Fold this sequence. Notes:
CATH topology of the largest domain: Lambda Exonuclease, Chain A
Strand content: 15-25%
Shape: globular
Largest sheet: 6 strands, mixed
Number of strands: 11
Distance between the termini: 29 Å
Low-confidence stretches: none
Radius of gyration: 22 Å
Number of helices: 11
Order of helices and strands: EHEHHEHEEEHHEHEHEEHEHH
Structural class: alpha/beta
Amino acid sequence: MIVKNSLGLPEALVKAVTLSPHNKAGQYSATTLLKGTREILLTKRHWESLEMDVADNIWALFGTAVHAVLEEQETSEFKEEYLQAVVSSSVVTGRADSYCLDTKVITDYKTASTWKIKFADFDDWRRQGLIYAWLFAKGGLEVKKVRFIALLKDHSKTQAKIDATYPQSPVYVYEFDITPEAIAEIEAFILQKVEQLEACDNVADDDLPECTQAERWATDDTYAVKKEGRKSAVRVYETEAEANDKLAELGKGHYIEERKGISKKCADYCLASAFCSQWKKEAEANG
């Protein structure tokens, strides 16, 4: 990986946030499996050419520090429990922050932003927790519940006082029970994802399966009905048909402005986007 230091930050900080390959050859971690097949394989293939600026990865230091402090605390729980299971010709791995043998609860710590809590964006955490539970079950350890303890790095007490939908504490607990149905569901996901990764290992970059809307963190296209001379929209609709109906109702002096959806991960958070034809096409289409 090519590490840039545009702000001339100290060497210690540079080393602390510089990334290394997340997976060994033939292995896929729980968090890796949550990404698109295209992103996973492009990142692996082009690792030496990927670019990262130290300043853009500074929040990773916060997460690392939190985990380091918690690991040092003496408790009766198993900490940093590492498990793996063979799937097809690959190995799926996971490392849960802690596991209590008495309660059979996995606990994982996260550093997150308040928007994730505000919009209840927990699908990735749920899948990650289920993969952990599946791995524990493969290792002969029962899991009854998974808990994610989120430390909110941008929490504002002032905002919490004036907005009831805003997280009311800088710590948020997201938890769920483990059921046989959920384990069967995640096992099907794991098998399908690993099989796809193996099948695409020798597929050309441009022919890799395209990342889904969810994997790209993509917003939908919208249609804003606007009035001439007015900056803000009269109303924004999810479909063009709805916008046209409103336009017909309002009549002369109004028009429709199409607002293209944005793939937020591709634009700002995918290391391999520079090598992705899917993202290049979208960026060109959106100007």
